[in-house]
Amino acid sequence: MIDLSNIAIIGSGPTSLYLLQNIWTHIDVFKNKIGKISIFEKDKILGFGMPYNPSNTDVFNMANISSEEIPKLQESFGDWLRSQNRELLTKFNISEFSIDDSEVYSRIALGYYFHEQFNQLLTAIKATGIEVNEHGDAEVIDLLQKKNGRILLTDSQHKKHTFSTVIIASGHLWKEKDNLKAGYFASPWPISKILPNEGTFYNFPVGILGASLSAFDVVTSLSHRHGEFVSVENKLKFLKHKEASNFKIVLHSAEGWLPHLQYEQQEPLREIYRHFSRRQLLDLIGDEGFLRIEDFFEKLCRPSLIAAFTKDNLLDVVEKLQQEAFSFKDLVTLMSEKHEYVNSFEGMKAEMITAKDSINNKIPIYWMETLDDLMYSLNYHSELLPAEDHIFLHKEIMPFLMNVIAALPLQSAEIFLALYDAKCIALKAGKVIFNDDSFENDKIKITVEFEKDGKKEMEYNLFINCGGQKSVELENFPFQSLVKQGSIRRATTNFATSTITDQLIKELDASKIMHDGDCTRLILSGIDIDSSYRTINENGTPNNSLYDINFTHTNGLRPYSYGLQACNATSLILVESWVSEIVEGENISNNIENITALYEENEEL
Ligand SMILES: Cc1cc2nc3c(=O)[nH]c(=O)nc-3n(C[C@H](O)[C@H](O)[C@H](O)COP(=O)(O)OP(=O)(O)OC[C@H]3O[C@@H](n4cnc5c(N)ncnc54)[C@H](O)[C@@H]3O)c2cc1C
């Protein structure tokens, strides 16, 4: 049975905020069940979240989500912005004061919005008689489950607290160490650390690993410190500062891709069963209990994608999709080729015309939106995929998907193209390798391996790794007592085929294979959870006292949980599981029929 009398939430970012919002939605059910909520936040101030916190982020860093795409809180982002004075909006780098719900704004503006929604929710919850304790500047450093099932929490001041239920919502973690002597930053966060001191310039090329949205943050923040952007005949131009004549940014990306651009959407919010019914999906589950990705593509994706590409008038793709032999991988290859240019900046210029047409004339790009919906749906059924399909998804599909969904706002793309026209940015395709001697001198040395033409050594005075966060495994799980006592375990999955081919074993890292008696299992990233985010212990028992809704801990079983919509969906599923247990006396995560019934019935999923 669940015991919500005394709950703790670790972290006060968007996931925590949406958890509170979803508790608030069912406050009639919870007001006599929840006695006390304690929120622990390592930052001094609660309610911002990592990417939106002014201590991490720069005013030039843009969100890639507009008000109409942000799941419901107490008031919408657009309405909140409209109620702020111009002075504050200017501080958020907003100069166009007629706020548009489909426009994107700075992440700092979003952070202050979240902070205020957080405070409003806490006030509302407190008013119902629930005690709420806010612990700022209180990093949780360990968790341990006591014999009586209660969770003992230790904070950074070594204070110990005991709770009936703990929810981990601790989000991003950037643990890798910088090497300042070699001019190497292991991540760009907080972004203030990579900026030159006021009045000084980086008068040399700066290397960046990755061409992701974080890399774009670095590009916008550094370029604003090395010159100014002016509008000439409706076109953005970059004028480099005279003391920074050698300033240039060199992006290193394995595939040599720049992200896709922001596009108009018909339905700004994702939906699990938009393109097919729950029953259609459940009918695909085979006798062994697996959902095969090829069946998912064939039966559920292909018809929706044909419809979407037809609406986009991409008839060459429609023709291919109509051929049975044209597989999911073929589609990814074809669409990647369409996005692959001899010169990616010239490609971005060409895509900019379509993207502007899409946004300005409100013409959706249906295939991108449909693909995002389909993958969002697959995400919430990923526990049904066998090992072979997890491998396929990660290797063949995810790099492309990440490039499509992490769409670049058009304002950021304009900055990019202005830098390109000013010859201040370059993109190098190839895999970056750090060697033993990479950090030995006062310049970092990297090796770039090209797909075709061998390799090349390069040196940088300053190199910023924007390759993203490392996956969280048991070894680097932040609350080690849980690992030691076996309260959590790795996420794993069975293979569908009993004989695993030598080819597959050769392709896999041996440390990813686990032998369990006669059974061979694939070790996925992160920890094991059930579908309502209860952690699973080493004996396979779900824990009613410990939930993990940190997407970086659970990305093996929920591989496509990105962004604010996932923050809401995750906490909503958890809260609905409590409601069902309290009202119906039933745990919905025990079988796929029940949890998918929730996905189908709830309008926000
Ligand atoms: C650079 C960047 C830009 C992004 N931009 C967007 C965007 O524009 N749109 C979008 O939809 N998504 C964006 N995302 C995705 C992002 O993951 C989510 O929007 C969101 O921030 C996730 O919220 P969270 O609460 O799970 O994690 P976080 O935002 O990381 O918040 C977690 C909170 O927990 C605290 N915390 C961590 N560990 C502890 C601990 N041990 N004890 C106490 N407190 C702790 C942290 O200080 C933080 O406040 C972006 C991500 C990054 C990295």
Structure write-up:
InterPro entries: FAD/NAD-bd_sf, HpyO/CreE_NAD-binding, L-asp_N-monooxygenase_NS-form. It comes from Cyclobacterium qasimii M12-11B. Pfam families: NAD_binding_9. This protein has 605 residues and is α/β, with parallel strands linked by helices. The protein folds into four domains: 6-173 and 471-489 and 528-601, FAD/NAD(P)-binding domain, CATH 3.50.50.60; 184-259 and 409-465, FAD/NAD(P)-binding domain (3-Layer(bba) Sandwich); 278-405, no CATH class; 495-524, no CATH class. The chain contains 18 helices and 22 strands. α8 packs antiparallel against α12. The protein is globular. The model has no long low-confidence stretch (mean pLDDT 92). It binds flavin-adenine dinucleotide (FAD).
Task: Give a short summary of the structure.
The protein has 605 residues and is α/β, with parallel strands linked by helices. The protein has helices at 14-25, 27-30, 77-82, 86-91, 107-127, 213-224, 278-282, 293-311, 315-321, 328-339, 344-360, 366-379, 387-405, 410-421, 480-484, 502-507, 563-584, 592-601; strands at 6-10, 36-40, 131-135, 140-145, 151-155, 160-163, 165-168, 184-185, 205-209, 227-232, 235-240, 248-253, 425-429, 431-434, 444-449, 455-460, 462-465, 490-494, 513-516, 519-527, 534-536, 542-548.
